[in-house]
Amino acid sequence: xxxxxxxxxxxxxxxxxxxxxxxxxxxxxxxxxxxxxxxxxxxxxxxxxxxxxxxxxxxxxxxxxxxxxxxxxxxxxxxxxxxxxxxxxxxxxxxxxxxxxxxxxxxxxxxxxxxxxxxxxxxxxxxxxxxxxxxxxxxxxxxxxxxxxxxxxxxxxxxxxxxxxxxxxxxxxxxxxxxxxxxxxxxxxxxxxxxxxxxxxxxxxxxxxxxxxxxxxxxxxxxxxxx
Length: 227
Ligand code: ZN
Fold this sequence. Notes:
By secondary structure, this protein is an alpha/beta fold.
């Protein structure tokens, strides 16, 4: 599932040239979908394909209803002084930039429930913790793929993989990453992201990352991570 951030009454960041994040991320997601589908190795669904507002929790619910193998949210937010692409996974990070991004993205917070088999609460707790560990490892592996592939083609933010409590990354069973393709608050990033050729380059790198990730999906992440 691809998740173009923002939409409708929520434009996201607006760059110095007037570029609206909601439009850039939708254009980027459409290009990524096109390239992924051309590869013929996965089915792609998007949380939105038009300019409409979708609460964060609904984006997560969308992916869970479709039993997505992977959730990728696309953004191009603002961060004073920052330039380059970066990737975020769910975590308790203390990195101020990641925390500030998550705080802003989470303004439309809404809690989502989890369906678990009818087993005693203590068994549910164990199942949930195993599931979360597996999901966390899968998310971290995807973040590494994204850093490796994007790094070949576009400038990266230092400490490219960061962690914070983004609501949109909270599906307990779906490995999830949020990619900041660049920052619209940066003049060079904004100019690049406005260009279709640049977005196509980002999409090619993301396609390699997703294909690479899928090639190892289904193998136990905990073993893969330590082995
Ligand atoms: Zn955003």
